[in-house]
Amino acid sequence: MPIEVRDVMGRVAIAVNMGASFADIVATMKRYAVGAVTVIDADRRPVGMVSGEDLLLKDTDAVCFEGRAATGCTAAELMTSPAVTVTPETPLEEAAQLMREKNVKQLPVIDPLTARVLGTLHQPDVLRALTRSAAPSSL
After folding, report:
1. What is the pTM of this model?
2. pLDDT for 120
3. DSSP letter at 74?
4. Which of 18, 31, 63, 86 has the greatest number of C-beta atoms within 10 Å?
5. Could you tell me which of 95, 88, 94 has the C-alpha nearest to residue 112?
6. Which of 88, 93, 90 is nearest to 130 (CA)?
7. Where are the alpha helices (DSSP H) in 84-138?
C-alpha cells in the first residue's frame, strides 16, 4: 500500500495572515524554528508561502514596493504565490516530486473540501518515510 501524505505530515501548520509584517514573519519563523511559513487568508486558506530566502532577497534589496523598506512590507507583498499544496490523500512520492519540481522544502496540507490548512509536510519527514519504505525487509 503506497504511503500517503497523511502518514507523515505534521499536524501543525505554522502560518501568518496576509497582513503580517516582515518582523512578525521573522519572529514566527524563529519561534517555531521553521524555514518558511504559509500565508493564509481570512478563511485559513493558503494563498502563498514566505521562506527565509524570500525575506533575505527582499531585505538585501532593502526596497519592497513603492520604495518602502523591506521591513515595512506585509506577507501578502513578500510571499511567493500561489501556494503549492497537497492533500492528506496525495501519494508521498507525488508530494516529493512536487517539492523537487517547485524547489520547496515544505508544503501546506489542505482539506480537499474546504481548502483550509490542516498541517504541513516537511522535506525531512518525506525523506525519512521514503528511506524506511525503500529499506529491505528482514525475513
Report:
1. 0.83
2. 95
3. B
4. 86
5. 88
6. 93
7. 92-102, 123-134
Residues 6 or more apart whose Cβ sits within 8 Å of residue 103 = none
Grouping H, G, I as helix, E, B as strand and the rest as coil, residue 80 is strand
Query: Pick the residue with more confidence: 66 or 104?
Result: 104
Q: Where would I find the H helices in 13-135?
A: 22-32, 52-61, 75-78, 92-102, 123-134
Beta strands at 36-40 and 46-51: parallel, antiparallel or unpaired:
antiparallel
* C-alpha cell read off for 93: 512520492
Residue 137, exposed/middle/buried by CB under 10 A (0-12, 13-18, 19+)?
exposed
DSSP state of 87: -
Question: Which band of pLDDT confidence, cut at 50, 70 and 90, is reported for residue 60?
Answer: very low
Q: In angstroms, rounded to a whole number, what is the distance separating the alpha carbons of residues 116 and 78?
A: 21
For 120, phi then psi, to 5°, come to: -140, 140
Per-chain mean pLDDT for the chain: 87
